[in-house]
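PROTEIN DESIGN WORKSHEET
SECTION A - STRUCTURE
LENGTH: 192
TOKENS:
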């Protein structure tokens, strides 16, 4: 594994942006997988939502309530622009970051994008099992939870797919196994 991690770090450093960017819907494992990848690569993990919340001094849910989604997305674009300037990081970005064309351009420039996927039912189960999720993340539609996940996935999946250099299915897989799959995909000879 150490030689695979070293090969991945070298490959990423030599290509566009020099970062590993994790994209996907909330609950797909970006933060957990990102932490394992960052540790293995010896790189910092930077979570764009955590950065936004830290800079604003309040949780994402509170930002949405106080300022609305458009203002949140403006903050997100500013944070992504700053993060795209650095190299040698694992970036975990909010699930809706792909909605703005400017953000997709920033994410593409930031590095190799890996889309972590799972079915709507599994995503909802993970979200429901995370006590911090309800406290920190706002509902985004007036729909029932599963309907919301399905609706937003239908809207976002084409955007994730267009941006992704690699797609990793996280369904029923342990975090370490997903991290292994990401490393193998990025290390492959025909990798982006």
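SECTION B - SEQUENCE
RESIDUE ASSIGNMENT:
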């Amino acid at each position: 594994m150490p030689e695979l991690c070293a090969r991945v770090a070298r490959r990423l450093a030599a290509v566009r942006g020099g970062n590993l960017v994790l994209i996907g819907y909330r609950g797909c494992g970006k933060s957990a997988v990102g932490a394992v990848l960052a540790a293995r690569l010896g790189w910092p993990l930077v979570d764009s939502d955590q950065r936004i919340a830290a800079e604003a001094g309040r949780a994402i849910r509170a930002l949405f309530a106080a300022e609305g989604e458009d203002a949140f997305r403006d903050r997100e674009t500013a944070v992504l622009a700053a993060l795209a300037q650095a190299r040698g990081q694992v970036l975990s970005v909010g699930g809706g970051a792909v909605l703005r064309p400017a953000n997709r351009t920033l994410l593409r420039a930031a590095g190799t994008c890996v889309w972590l996927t799972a079915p709507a039912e599994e995503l909802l189960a993970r979200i429901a099992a995370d006590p911090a999720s309800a406290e920190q993340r706002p509902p985004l539609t007036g729909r029932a939870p599963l309907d919301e996940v399905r609706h937003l996935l239908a809207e976002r999946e084409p955007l994730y797919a267009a941006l992704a250099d690699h797609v990793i299915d996280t369904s029923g897989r342990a975090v370490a196994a997903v991290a292994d799959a990401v490393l193998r995909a990025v290390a492959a000879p025909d990798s982006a």
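SECTION C - NOTES
The chain has a mean pLDDT of 92.
Strands lie at 19-23, 45-47, 90-92, 111-117, 166-169.
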